[in-house]
User: Which sequence fits this backbone?
């Protein structure tokens, strides 16, 4: 277990020779594919919409817990660029929940020092949602306790296509030499620019795939899959994932 120095004056009961356990286990940036709302509802013979509603409650709790733990950045997959293929009424439900969530939780973000970020082509969402998002981004821009990135109309391939276009634009204008393009230029052109490297990628609901999420950023992330359905994912589950992360030997190609 990694340890960090006790904060001055701390009376943490876990104190051990001036050290306390670090609940993040050294993870700075975690991302979650929040999957399984539909199956959660089905299991309980409830409408899918209620599964999504419960899913928002799980988001609220996990954001709070991650902030308290000292996680620097968290990226949550809320709506993929492929989710448009769902029935219209489900998309309407999801967009309605998104509206509600931003409106109801913006004060709490601000109070808790959370800086909101959105990755994905959110400008393609309904105008009123774009306005809500833009206001929330502006209002929380100077918060620095934790960055919460929500992936909306996000697809990693779409993100990379947009990044390539912006780099090609710089080449076209003569401000960039194609031979000088490196991995950093690509990272900087992605929606996650400026965020810490992705340490841990979690997927709930037992599916073992990335579904077009953070394909570039996860090059050296640790992966954690759990059968737990997203609405049931809680503090203990997050602690379990972080403990697993802390026990891994990250070699980055070395030995
Ligand atoms: C995740 O739950 C939420 C979104 C993709 C928006 P699902 O709706 O995918 O739930 P399952 O996978 O059908 O159980
Ligand atoms: C991934 O879940 C997207 C989100 C969690 C927002 P999906 O349910 O859309 O993924 P697939 O279709 O099972 O790959
Ligand atoms: Mg799913």
Assistant:
């Amino acid at each position: 277990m990694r340890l960090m120095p006790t904060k001055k004056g701390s009376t943490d009961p876990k104190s051990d020779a001036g050290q306390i356990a670090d609940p993040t286990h050294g993870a700075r940036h975690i991302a979650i594919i929040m999957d399984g709302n539909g199956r959660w509802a089905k299991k309980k013979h409830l409408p899918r919409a209620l599964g999504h509603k419960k899913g928002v409650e799980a988001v609220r709790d996990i954001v709070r817990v991650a902030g308290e733990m000292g996680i620097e950045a968290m990226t949550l997959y809320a709506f993929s660029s492929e989710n448009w293929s769902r029935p219209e009424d489900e998309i309407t439900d999801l967009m309605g929940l998104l509206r509600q969530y931003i409106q109801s939780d913006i004060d709490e973000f601000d109070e808790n020092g959370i800086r909101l970020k959105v990755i994905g082509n959110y400008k393609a969402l309904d105008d009123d949602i774009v306005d809500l998002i833009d206001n929330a981004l502006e209002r929380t821009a100077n918060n620095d306790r934790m960055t919460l990135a929500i992936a909306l109309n996000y697809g990693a391939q779409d993100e990379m296509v947009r990044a390539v276009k912006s780099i090609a634009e710089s080449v076209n204008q003569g401000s960039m030499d194609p031979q000088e393009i490196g991995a950093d230029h690509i990272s900087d052109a992605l929606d996650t620019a400026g965020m810490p490297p992705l340490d841990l990628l979690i997927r709930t609901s037992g599916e073992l795939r990335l579904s077009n999420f953070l394909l570039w950023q996860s090059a050296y992330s640790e992966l954690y899959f759990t059968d737990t359905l997203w609405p049931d994912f809680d503090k203990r589950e997050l602690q379990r994932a972080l403990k697993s992360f802390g026990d891994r030997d990250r070699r980055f190609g070395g030995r």
